[in-house]
Design a protein that fits this description.
The structure holds two protein chains of two kinds.
Chain A (H helix, E strand, L loop, with lengths): L4 E3 L2 E4 L5 E6 L6 E7 L6 E7 L2 E4 L8 E4 L6 E5 L8 E10 L5 E5 L3 E5 L1
Parallel strand pairs in A: 2-11
Antiparallel strand pairs in A: 1-3, 3-8, 4-5, 4-9, 5-6, 7-8, 9-10, 9-11
Chain B lengths: L2 E3 L4 E5 L4 E3 L2 E3 L5 E7 L5 E7 L5 E3 L5 E5 L4 E6 L8 E8 L7 E2 L3 E6 L1
Parallel strand pairs in B: 2-12
Antiparallel strand pairs in B: 1-4, 3-9, 5-6, 5-10, 7-8, 8-9, 10-11, 10-12
Chain lengths: ~120, ~110
């Protein structure tokens, strides 16, 4: 069964350093999402791509976060510089239009970021 | 404001007992509702979804959920819990295309043998 791949699974970095996460969606899924999940909370959408275009980045802290999906396939989320409050699980999801024209989102295993 | 409330942060049940996890939502339009499960260190897996029609929906792993519009609720149930059901459960609401989901804060389920 096809899965969303993410790497690394765990990342420890010092504050003020740069960090990057990678996501490879399920083949054929045009929509890709990056979520941030703070411990004890539900996921919150950071950015959404449709193919290579950003369709929603309203919750992305653009002073330090950036995301790209250059060829409309895999994607990278970057934080520079990292801050202590960025410690969280970063989840990638991809979707296709399923029954009734509804997106069905499939999630990757996530990257657990710890900023020290 | 659009939101999802899961009132129970942590629930403990014995294996074989029945389970109900509560979910209440606030949404301006017709809600499309989802339940996801997250095992430790893993991503989220879709258990079931409700778009329209029969208000009782069946999902994977023996779970079901009932949509009650009058109560703005979408509670998740299972008649007999297995130890492998121990995980965190998230309720989510979204627009008609299932995009831009709003998640609740989750309920952690612990199962005792």
């Amino acid at each position: 069964e096809a899965e969303v791949a993410q790497s690394p699974r765990y990342k420890i970095t010092e504050k003020s350093q740069a960090v990057a996460f990678w996501c490879d969606p399920i083949s054929g899924h045009a929509t890709l999402y990056w979520y941030r999940q703070i411990l004890g909370q539900g996921p919150e959408l950071l950015v959404q791509f449709q193919d290579e275009s950003v369709v929603d980045d309203s919750q992305l802290p653009k002073d330090r976060f950036s995301a790209e999906r250059l060829k409309g396939v895999d994607s990278t989320l970057k934080i520079q510089p990292a801050e202590l409050g960025d410690s969280a699980m970063y989840l990638c999801a991809s979707s296709f239009l399923g029954t009734g024209g509804v997106h069905e989102q499939y999630f990757g295993p996530g990257t657990r970021l710890t900023v020290t | 404001a659009q939101s999802v409330t899961q009132p129970d942060i942590h629930i403990t049940v014995s294996e074989g007992a029945s389970l109900e996890l509560r979910c209440n939502y606030s949404y301006g339009a017709t809600p499309y509702l989802f339940w996801y499960v997250q095992s430790p260190g893993q991503g989220l897996q879709l258990l079931l979804k409700y778009f329209s029609g029969d208000t009782l929906v069946q999902g994977i792993k023996g779970f079901e959920a009932e949509f009650k519009r009058s109560q703005s609720s979408f509670n998740l149930r299972k008649p007999s819990v297995h130890w492998s059901d121990a995980a965190e459960y998230f309720c989510a609401v979204g627009p008609s295309d299932g995009d831009k989901l709003i998640f609740g804060t989750g309920t952690r389920l612990q199962v005792f043998p």
